[in-house]
Amino acid sequence: MDSVSGQGLYPLHRSKTIHLVRHAQGLHNVAREKDQSGAYTSPEFFDAQLTPLGWQQVDSLHKHVESSGLSKRIELVVVSPLLRTMQTAVGVFGEEDEIDVLPPLMLANTGNSSRPTISSLNCPPFVAMELCRERLIESDADDLWNDYARETNKELAARGLKFLNWLWTRKEKEIAVITHSAFLLHTLDAFGDDCHPFVKSEICRQFDNCELRSLIIVDKSMISSDPSTTDYPGRIPPGIDAPSDDGDEENL
């Protein structure tokens, strides 16, 4: 792989930084460890809450985003509207606070969590987004489910790409996304084929519970029309501007 084909060069304003997070351990994850027969996919576990270990994982990631300065840079948190992802999102990017100053991100003991109220003070805005939710299941309570079949891997990947296109409608440049293992796995698998296999693996390998992975996405097809905030046109004030090297030695 030569130095040119192994690199990519794109305008900065056509990129966004996304911080992808898989939710922390939920009750359904424990159920799967105990029973590989598929019982964990039943509606009973569809909106599973976090386990006590899951909340410990949330606390660890919260400390990381604080110590790394990431919490100061994120402009938006997009979260799947299921309980385990919302608990993860508010635990990681919110602040436990008993002071009733602003509307809370999460009330005390939500989902039998035994956790105190989590404040929205100094937090980025949160958006719950159906497009990044768990795989659609066969259930009367699932409004997005089609009765002909459970959502396939291909359909899940297509929904993931639609979600990434939606991200380009947002003005924010640094966004955290809290979602699910299957959604991440099948969405990201569409990327990295033009990279070294190790780089492809960095993008596409399966997420552990409460893992955070930071990626850059680039708009190569003009989905977004946001102007650059750092480019400068030059020639201000204007003056003679003959090129110093245009292939004609007489003009040097």
Automatic annotation (TrEMBL):
Gene3D superfamilies cross-referenced by the UniProt entry: Phosphoglycerate mutase-like
A Pfam family of this chain: His_Phos_1
Entry superkingdom: Eukaryota
Residue spans of biased composition, Acidic residues class: 243-252
Family named by the database record: Belongs to the phosphoglycerate mutase family.
UniProt xrefs under PANTHER family: BROAD-SPECIFICITY PHOSPHATASE YOR283W-RELATED, PHOSPHOGLYCERATE MUTASE-LIKE PROTEIN 1 ISOFORM X1
Protein name: Phosphoglycerate mutase-like protein 1
Organism from which the protein derives: Penstemon davidsonii
